[in-house]
């Protein structure tokens, strides 16, 4: 069994002896946009104050570098002032993503070292990354990409800031099918149903709204939907959200609960407390946003898998609902993990 599948099973406490069943799902072929131009929605809104002094050291490269480097035999560290994580060069899985707790006026950690993700593991279904690593390090950003067999390529884009849109992973396959990615949270973190959003379900909020009941809906007047965030027990400002573009979360029936409502809106259904499973289109993106960007009421990102352009700055025009702290036990999704969904057919 390929190493990436073994890692997926270990991530949920299951021995890596089960076969993954994945049905082919056609999707348009795409190329990843360079830099952070493709980061959708709220990720563009972060203040530059959160990035002061930021910058990465990757594979011995710091400052400004744009070239190729040889792949290491094992995981390597992407180290910034504010965030750090490890990369497995064989599949571009991410391990031990954390905030360092470095001082910044927009800090959301309370000055603590704060783990977020234990792992983000893509299942390449037999394909492997084999080429050199293309690396660009500049200012507060780092972009890493690597190609492999069967038209496989993976791109990781990261930003070294105290909050905002900080990370995205972009898979691409020669057969155009989706890539399943399993997110496992750090022990200290948990997924929860945001009660501030629950209390406003169905309301229209934002600077362009003329009515809380009718909107009308627009770029700056958005209807409140259920919101799943990532939180912890120690940082009153710490909020994170999975940010998907042309990606679907795979239901996990053993998890929940589903906080029902009369509007037919659902996001917490079949969602575990310590993991989430995603099917990402070839050329799609699976990222994360943090801080106020994680609790901003914004429209969903556009369906884009090629030459995606950044959206306009919207800070101050969309509502930020925040979240209650501490997070009540009743709002936390349970159980933490489940093997449900891991072997489901790929989402089309």
For the structure shown, list the relevant keywords.
disordered N terminus, 4% helix, single chain, 348 residues, 2 helices, 13-stranded antiparallel β-sheet, two-stranded antiparallel ribbon, 17 strands, mainly beta
Textual characterization of the structure:
By secondary structure, the protein is mainly β. The chain is built from two helices and 17 strands. The chain has helices at residues 3-11, 195-198, and strands at residues 57-58, 65-69, 76-79, 83-88, 93-99, 114-123, 133-138, 141-147, 153-159, 165-172, 179-185, 189-193, 204-205, 222-223, 228-232, 240-249, 275-290. Strands 1, 2, 3, 4, 5, 6, 7, 8, 9, 10, 11, 16 and 17 form a 13-stranded antiparallel β-sheet that branches. A two-stranded antiparallel sheet has the order 12-15. It has a two-stranded antiparallel sheet with strand order 13-14.
Topology:
Elements: H1 3-11, E1 57-58, E2 65-69, E3 76-79, E4 83-88, E5 93-99, E6 114-123, E7 133-138, E8 141-147, E9 153-159, E10 165-172, E11 179-185, E12 189-193, H2 195-198, E13 204-205, E14 222-223, E15 228-232, E16 240-249, E17 275-290
Structural class: mainly beta
Mean pLDDT: 85
Strand content: 25-35%
Shape, per Cα inertia axes = globular
- The low-confidence runs, each spanning 5 or more residues with pLDDT under 50, are 1-6, 8-46, 309-313
What is the CA-atom radius of gyration, in angstroms? Answer: 19 Å
Number of helices: 2
